[in-house]
Write a structure and sequence with these properties.
With about 240 residues, the protein is α/β, with parallel strands linked by helices. It is about 10% helix and about 25% strand.
Length: about 240
């Protein structure tokens, strides 16, 4: 089912989406999207949504298993507190991608802004994954508590990240293809190369990434990646009395 969102307030667009779902339409196409917010909030696993245009902030927030494909760029907070599902963005995304994300996968074809992956966390069977085809601005993985972030640096920049990577990080793992220097990361972050187990996992994730985004698959070796991990599960423990 197609929904034309031209000039429609975001509240009405979301009401139209839920009305369509109640009528049994679970494969939706939103046309002419121009910054409408909260699209896909809380949607369950039976829903597939294609967005033609640029969705506004909080796309797929609290999402519970739906699949959303954006045929263009996306604004801030994609996947805010997302629980499950998959978001595909055929372009760039703004700041705080995956903010508080608790599960599911977000695949970005190009770059992301500041604080991507902030407060990402994993619990039991919930495990969030963010894969970015380009690079990220400052504070990637800030206060990260779980899950995986991958920066593929497909444009082969010398370094695909800004500064303060992993500041406050106390869980999860970041894999970066390209050069990362100590001055670019938080004091809480350690450096390593992907283990054999890491690489087996990454190969599966990357195969899914290229397939889902319909991009030509590129071959990489583990030696191209830097693995960032937290040195401590409680990096600021000395600030507290217990």
């Amino acid at each position: 089912m197609n929904i034309d969102t031209s000039g429609i307030h975001y509240k009405q667009v979301n009401e139209d989406i839920h009305a369509a779902l109640k009528q049994g339409n679970h494969d939706l196409v939103l046309d002419n999207v121009r910054g409408q917010r909260y699209l896909g909030t809380g949607l369950g696993s039976s829903v597939k949504m294609t967005i033609n245009g640029v969705p506004g902030n909080d796309l797929a927030s609290f999402m519970n298993g739906a699949r959303i494909e954006v045929m263009g760029n996306a604004q801030d907070a994609v996947g805010n507190t997302m629980n499950a599902g998959k978001v595909l963005v055929h372009g760039v995304a703004g700041d705080i991608v995956g903010y508080g994300m608790r599960g599911g996968r977000i695949y970005i074809e190009s770059d992301v802004g500041y604080r991507a992956g902030i407060h990402m966390k994993a619990f039991e069977d919930n495990f969030p994954v963010v894969v970015v085809g380009g690079g990220a601005q400052d504070y990637l993985g800030e206060y990260m508590a779980g899950g995986v972030i991958v920066l593929l640096n497909l444009r082969d920049r010398v370094s695909p990240v800004g500064h303060f990577v992993g500041t406050g990080m106390h869980g999860g793992t970041i894999f970066i293809r390209g050069k990362v220097e100590q001055r670019q990361v938080g004091a809480e972050v350690g450096f390593d190369r992907p283990s054999d187990e890491d690489w087996d996992y990454l190969e599966g994730v990357l195969a899914d990434y290229f397939r889902e985004l319909a991009m030509p698959k590129r071959s990489f070796g583990p030696e191209e990646f830097t693995k960032l991990y937290p040195k401590s599960a409680r990096p600021y423990g000395n600030l507290y009395s217990y």
